């Protein structure tokens, strides 16, 4: 098989800075963006990309940056991964769209077969495919409401579920996701999350606290579903204490509440397991997936218990582009890369390297209040030394330094004081080590 000359894994794997970041070519294009793209669409690191693959992103000025973001946990298999590129090429030449709801095709069903196989639990499962994570979350709630005949939806502090109207209501953080965009969908209730750094509770205690809120403020009999990220994404990579998720899942089961794991950011090998729910053996009733599913093409899914999925009337689920054949071909390629490359194991190796580098950092810089995450989904939270008072200013300074030095890092968290590290699983150890050298330098050079 010939590999692409312009991107993908054949791209030289090194950090190379030939101009300031952003360089003149990017600056010129930024002016054009400013003139024609709505200001509401921001950019984290405004270099314009011409190629990407392995663990690097190459810009129009010839700079090669190390990628610790994977386009927000999307290109876990790498950018332009060989099996993804091959499948996409073949599919676009065969046909690009028929609409699965009009005339179906194999790729859609093949993806549903694969999802039944890889998602948690060995019960009988079905799936429906969509275009974005938010759309998958909306549909999971639709299914839970029809299946239970109940309206209320439970979500958690720091949750992120998307930017559509219902998912904005489910998302916790006001700026930038919700401010001014209301009124929001009703019947969404927020419970306290397990956040070990800030609450000091065991998983069981934190679950009891959340369940008490749901029982007293909503009523179990009114709840259609609990929607939870097994490790929170945008909200700060908050990893609940052990026991929290199993206790919530058990309570949901006892009360006829559909337990929905939003694995849009955590799914597909990212955390060192195929899904983050696997870590404690939690088997959700429904799982929402997107991001890592298709190597960069837009695809999302709701997968779950066949009887729950089938509670919706024919025609009640779908959309013009949902399960587009090119996106499905990409997903099958991405799954081939994950299986062939044992990317769950690779995520654990990457996680071990990151944990060790972050441990060194925390030992020297007391602004690092917490190291958390699993596999290739790790984070550090920055607080004023000796406190849990968030330090978003230092976080921004460190991020800016990394960007200028050619390392793509992302921040997150309710207070904007968390670094999240999400390298593609195709990154080499050497490149990863080099990126963390730069991160260490960034901490040493800022205050
Ligand atoms: C990104 C994300 C979403 C929304 O996905 P989009 O594809 O951006 O709509 C929902 N839930 C979680 C956990 C996410 O990380």
From TrEMBL:
EC class: transferase
UniProt keyword annotation of Transferase present: yes
Cofactor(s) for this UniProt protein: pyridoxal 5'-phosphate
Catalytic reaction annotation: (S)-3-amino-2-methylpropanoate + 2-oxoglutarate = 2-methyl-3-oxopropanoate + L-glutamate; 4-aminobutanoate + 2-oxoglutarate = succinate semialdehyde + L-glutamate
Enzyme Commission number, as recorded: 2.6.1.19, 2.6.1.22
UniProt pathway: Amino-acid degradation; 4-aminobutanoate degradation
InterPro entries, sorted: 4NH2But_aminotransferase_bac, Aminotrans_3, Aminotrans_3_PPA_site, Class-III_PLP-dep_AT, PyrdxlP-dep_Trfase, PyrdxlP-dep_Trfase_major, PyrdxlP-dep_Trfase_small
UniProt keyword annotations, A-Z: Aminotransferase, Pyridoxal phosphate, Transferase
NCBIfam families (alphabetical): GABAtrnsam (TIGR00700), PRK06058.1 (NF004714)
PANTHER family reported in the protein's UniProt record: AMINOTRANSFERASE CLASS III (PTHR11986), LEUCINE_METHIONINE RACEMASE (PTHR11986:SF58)
The family this protein is said to belong to: Belongs to the class-III pyridoxal-phosphate-dependent aminotransferase family.
Protein name: (S)-3-amino-2-methylpropionate transaminase
Organism the protein comes from: Nocardioides endophyticus
Gene this chain is encoded by: gabT
């Amino acid at each position: 098989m010939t590999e692409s000359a312009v991107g993908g894994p054949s791209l030289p794997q090194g950090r190379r800075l030939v101009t300031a970041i952003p360089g003149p070519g990017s600056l010129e294009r930024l002016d054009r963006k400013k003139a024609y793209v709505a200001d509401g669409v921001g950019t984290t690191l405004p270099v314009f990309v011409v190629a990407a693959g392995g663990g690097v992103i190459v810009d129009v000025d010839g700079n090669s940056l190390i990628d610790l973001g994977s386009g927000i946990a999307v290109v876990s298999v790498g950018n332009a991964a060989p099996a993804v590129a091959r499948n996409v090429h073949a599919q676009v030449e065969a046909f690009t769209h028929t609409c699965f709801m009009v005339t179906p095709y194999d790729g859609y069903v093949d993806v549903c077969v694969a999802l039944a196989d890889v998602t948690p639990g060995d019960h009988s499962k079905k799936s429906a495919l969509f275009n974005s994570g938010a759309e998958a979350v909306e549909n999971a709630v639709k299914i839970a409401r029809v299946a239970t005949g109940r309206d209320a939806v439970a979500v958690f502090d720091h949750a992120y579920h998307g930017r559509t109207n219902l998912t904005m209501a489910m998302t916790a953080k006001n700026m930038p996701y919700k401010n001014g965009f209301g009124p929001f969908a009703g019947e969404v209730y927020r419970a306290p999350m397990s956040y070990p750094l800030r609450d000091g509770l065991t998983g069981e205690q934190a679950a009891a606290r959340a369940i008490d809120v749901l029982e007293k403020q909503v009523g179990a009999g009114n709840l259609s579903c609990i929607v939870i990220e097994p490790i929170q994404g945008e909200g700060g990579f908050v990893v609940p204490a052990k026991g929290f998720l199993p206790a919530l899942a058990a309570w949901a089961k006892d009360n006829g509440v559909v337990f929905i794991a939003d694995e849009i950011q955590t799914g597909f090998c990212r955390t060192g397991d195929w899904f983050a729910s696997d870590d404690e053996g939690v088997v959700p009733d429904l799982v929402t997936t997107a991001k890592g599913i298709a190597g960069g093409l837009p695809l999302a899914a709701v997968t779950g218990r066949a009887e729950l999925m089938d509670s919706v009337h024919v025609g009640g689920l779908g959309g013009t582009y949902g399960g587009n054949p090119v996106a499905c071909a990409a997903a099958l390629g991405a799954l081939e890369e994950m299986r062939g490359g044992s990317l769950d194991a690779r995520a654990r190796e990457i996680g071990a390297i990151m944990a060790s580098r972050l441990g060194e950092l925390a030992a020297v810089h007391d602004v690092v209040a917490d190291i958390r995450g699993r596999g290739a989904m790790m984070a550090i939270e920055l607080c004023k030394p000796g406190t849990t008072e968030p330090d978003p200013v230092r976080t921004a300074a460190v991020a800016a330094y990394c960007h200028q030095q050619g390392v793509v890092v992302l921040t997150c968290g309710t207070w904007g004081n968390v670094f999240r590290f999400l390298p593609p699983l195709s990154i080499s150890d050497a490149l990863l080590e080099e990126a963390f050298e730069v991160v260490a330098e960034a901490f040493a050079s800022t205050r």
